[in-house]
Design a protein that fits this description.
mainly alpha
Length: 61
């Protein structure tokens, strides 16, 4: 959160971006897509980390 966002929130003002995101998450299709996207990104990261760990261990021997 930027300092200008902090100020806006503390003054009771909400940025247009926050309002836009609030509206988007009310849409079940948007929410489903967002959750699926997060799952894909995390899954790829887990696999990449496991592969790197495996490669590091195989290079040590």
């Amino acid at each position: 959160m930027t300092s200008s966002t902090n100020i806006a929130v503390s003054e009771g003002k909400i940025s247009s971006r926050v309002m836009e995101m609030r509206e988007k998450i009310k849409n079940p299709r948007y929410l489903d897509f967002a959750i699926q996207r997060i799952a894909v990104v995390l899954s790829r990261r887990i696999v990449e980390d496991a592969e790197q760990h495996f490669l590091r261990r195989s290079n040590e021997t």
